[in-house]
Amino acid sequence: MPAESPLTVFEAEFRQIISVLDKLVKEANAKVVFIVDKDGHLISASGETENIDTVSLASLTAGNIAATSGIAKLLGEKEFSILFHEGEKDNLHLSIIAERVILVVLFDSRSSLGLVRLRVKKATEELTAIFQKLMGEAARSSGSAEALLREITDEDIDKLFH
């Protein structure tokens, strides 16, 4: 799978992401909500993060998604967009957003899978819009940079270095 270019998140969109995550923590009665890119980098987190190794969780979550993606391909699926892990005390709900990032919801007995799924569905719509906008802006700026590079002539380069 070819590597994707790094995702740049601007301050306005970052604030929107945080707002969606904060709201999801409250409405789903979740302990923690994370957004992680598919390379395992933590983008943002909300909730009770103090006692959690967020770097390791982000990395392992991305690895989990990658492994599950391999299973999906073996079964003829594009990918499994939602995963659920049930533990004795804590549960994990993972969702792929805009084919680019992973929404991680950690919850316990204060919530239920049904409530989490319901709230994640709404949050997914909001986050998808934010990330699609970011990816669109990245594609436009990449196209502008490529056009600029095509417009630079050998003469321009000579002037720059002489």
Give a concise summary:
The chain is 52% helix and 19% strand.
Attribute tags:
19% strand, 5 strands, alpha+beta, Beta-Lactamase, 5-stranded antiparallel sheet, elongated, 162 residues
- Which CATH class? Alpha Beta
Task: Summarize model confidence as the mean pLDDT.
Answer: 85
Proportion of residues in helical segments: 40-55%
Major sheet: arrangement of strands: 2-1-5-4-3
Q: Specify the overall morphology.
A: elongated
List the total number of helices. Answer: 4
In CATH terms, the superfamily is: Dynein light chain 2a, cytoplasmic
Gyration radius, rounded: 19 Å
CATH architectural category:
2-Layer Sandwich
**Count of structural domains:** 1
SSE string: HEEHEEEHH
CATH topology term: Beta-Lactamase
Instruction: Profile the largest sheet.
Output: 5 strands, antiparallel
In percent terms, what proportion of residues is strand? 15-25%
Which residues form runs of ≥5 with pLDDT under 50? none
* Secondary-structure class: alpha+beta
Number of β-strand runs: 5
Descriptive report:
By secondary structure, this protein is of the alpha+beta class. It is elongated and about 70 Å long. The protein has one domain: Dynein light chain 2a, cytoplasmic (Beta-Lactamase, 2-Layer Sandwich), CATH 3.30.450.30. The chain has a five-stranded antiparallel beta sheet with strand order 2-1-5-4-3, with helices on both faces. The model has no long low-confidence stretch (mean pLDDT 85). The protein has helices at 11-27, 54-74, 113-151, 154-161; strands at 32-37, 42-47, 82-86, 91-97, 101-107.
